[in-house]
Structure formats: C-alpha cells, structure tokens
Amino acid sequence: MIKTHRPTAITLALCAAINAFAFSANVNASDIPTKQLQDVEKNVVAWRRDIHQHPELGNRETRTADIAASHLENLGMQVERNIGYTGVVGILKGDLPGPTVMLRADMDALPVTEKVDLPFASTQTTNYRGVDVGIMHACGHDTHVAMLMGAAEVLAGMKKQLQGTVMFVFQPAEEGAPQGEEGGAELMLKEGIFEQHKPDVAFGLHITSGLNTGKIGYRSGPLMASSDSFEIAIHGTQTHGSTPWNGVDPISAAAQVVTGVNHIISRQIDITKEPAIVSFGKIAGGVRNNIIPEKVEMVGTIRNFDMDNRQQIFDKIKHTATHIAAASGATAEVEINEGYPVTINNPALTEQMLPSLKKVAGEEKVVVMPKITGAEDFSFYALEVPSVFVFLGGTPVGKDATKAPSNHSPYFFADEKALPIGTATLTQLALDYMAANAP
C-alpha cells in the first residue's frame, strides 16, 4: 500500500510499471485513434520521470524547454524558442481549415527538497534567496510538460484530418519569476505570442492531489483567486517607551491598521458577489523593549474572485492605512503589488467543452470543483481569449484525496496512471473544439 505521507519506492515501482498504463477501459476516446494514445503512453511516462529527476526553477528551464522544443521540431512543427526567457511555442497546422486552439503546460519546479521515495526523485539543489535548498517538481509541472508533449505527438499524427491549428505553449515561471525579473504567462504575452499567433480559445490543466486518479474537476466562471500582495510602512517618531507622548508610536498605529484592514472584507466589500481574503503575514518593528521605534513594516496577501472587487480592495487598503496612521500622528506608505488575476473559465466555452471531458473520463468522474483560493497565471491568457482550465486527479484510487500531501508539499506525489487521461483530455478538447467550429 502507498502511504499518503511517504510512498515507498517498491510500491511506486509496481504502480508505475510501464505495462500498467494501458488506457483505462472507462476512458472513451472515440474521436482519437486509440492506438496512437497507447503508443505514446510509454514516452509520456519516460518524459515525466526524466523531467522530474532534473527539475529547474522559473526562467531557468533550459533543459526542459529544449526537450519540449526538440520534440515539437521532430514532429515537423514550426517552433519558436526563448520566449519570456525559456518559453517554447509550437504551431501545428492541420491540412483542413479551422480555428486555432492553444494548449498550455507550465515547466518550472519549486525550491523544495523532495522527500518522496521515488527511483527518479530529484537530487538537484540550489541557493534560493540565501538558503541552500533542494529543487522539486512539487506542483506536478513535470507531468504537464509530458502530457502536452504526448498530446502534440497524437495530434501531429492526425495532421491530415486536423480541422484547424494547434498552438502548443510550454511556459516558464508559473510559480513566479526570480526576484528582479519578469516571467511567466504575462511576459510571454508581453513578448507577443498572441500578436503572432492569436488563438480562438485556450485550454490548460493542472494535476492535483485533491482528486483521485480518473477524475477531472472543472468550474464555470471564477475558478481560482487573484493573488496580490501589499506592503505597508508606518512612520512615526522614535522615543523612549517611558515617555510615548514625546514621539509618535508606529506600533500602536500599525495595530489599528491591522484591525481596520481586516474590517474591509467584512464591512466594506459586497462578498455576496464573490468571496475575498486579506491576510497579514509579517509585522516587524523595533529592537528593544523600552524604545518605541520610528518605523513598522507590514506585508500581506489579497485573494479574491471578482476583478471589480479586486480594485476596490486595493483602494480601501490604501485609504484605511493612510487615514488610521494620520489619526495617530503617523504616516503610512502603501504599496500594492499586483500578481495574478482571477482565473475565469468562460461559461459558454465551459458548457461547450463539458461533453469532451465526460467523453474522456466518464460522466460520473467529471466533478464540479469548489472555488480555489490559490492562484494560477493561466489567468493572463484567459483575460485575452475564451479559456477553460481544469484539474486532473492525481491521487491513487483507494487513497483518501483529502489527506494526500498537497501540491507544493515535499511529499507531493502524482500518480502516473493519471498521465494518459491528461494526454487524452488535452487532445480531446482540441479536436472537439476544432470540429465544432470548422467552416
């Protein structure tokens, strides 16, 4: 049995044996040549293991990008490299006219030391912000790359009957760019990938330990929260703790700011539209018990599911902090750092593609996801074109997915039996959209 907190190498080797990946009988891929899917399965598993064993951080995915780009070139595609540092775009033009469909996979790993006992576990290390740490595909992006490479091979083999164009995007830095750099979907768009090849729609998926293998999770409308951060500096006047009236106490003002900002969501934002969260993560100021400092610094995060509410929250944090500080005789500097927008699945497109998901997984295994307060930079693509982003179950059947190590955990484990389902999902979404919208 695989223990959810630490799978053993012997059990994983048995579960991951190549002959165990015959396409599941409950996966109906009638529109896809089943033999092509079966033929590519061994390669998908091998690619995943190789990439997992050699993870790379954001904007540094040179090896991973070369694997993906070389594969697309060998399939005869037009390929562009080094977009947004290491991004790759491959264009597959079908022999028949039709729309352009974008399929996306993110490539970057995380500064996490792997603790899963796998024969292909990562031993890579790096110095991340002054700390020596391991590098691990703790979010499953290795599986995303492998599955999209598999879908590319299947679709390239169908070029003669392909009704349109498929745009394969292998993206760096979904987890965020290194300090001082731009990156991810936003940078790839900034460098013009949609100017040269504007897709009609975009599809993406993410493996998750929160669902069992075989299941696909979706949600129409807002799926994942926007993720933004804020920094507040309260400036007072230093004085001795025994005579606070001789200065301005920024600690006292900061305490009131925390209370005031926490009231923004509960009292000033219409949360009947969508939920929102503001959390402080750090407060720092002072060095000694009897000295009132001249400055207090605070940082926090903002999560929300409505783009209008998002701007209101930004404005109200600035207003609240500056006015509360002023009431204490202090001043406040507020900086809002915009991160990822809300990930929104286009409702009409979601409804249109729902039969494709059910075709792959079976109707009973396609489930509605709750809103997720995590964020995803696929959201930038979804602001530009109608998009659908889904979740692929990755916890072995028979295991409690609610207790499985979550994405970003050093014990995160992605069941390789999910890989053919993900490959089929990407392929089916592309084929069905093109067939439904071809001239």
TrEMBL record:
Keywords: Hydrolase, Signal. Pfam families: M20_dimer (PF07687), Peptidase_M20 (PF01546). InterPro entries: Amidohydrolase (IPR017439), Bact_exopeptidase_dim_dom (IPR036264), Peptidase_M20 (IPR002933), Peptidase_M20_dimer (IPR011650). The keyword Transmembrane helix does not apply. Gene3D superfamilies: 3.30.70.360, Zn peptidases. Residues 1-29 form the signal peptide. Residues 228-324 form the Peptidase M20 dimerisation domain. NCBIfam families: amidohydrolases. This is Amidohydrolase.
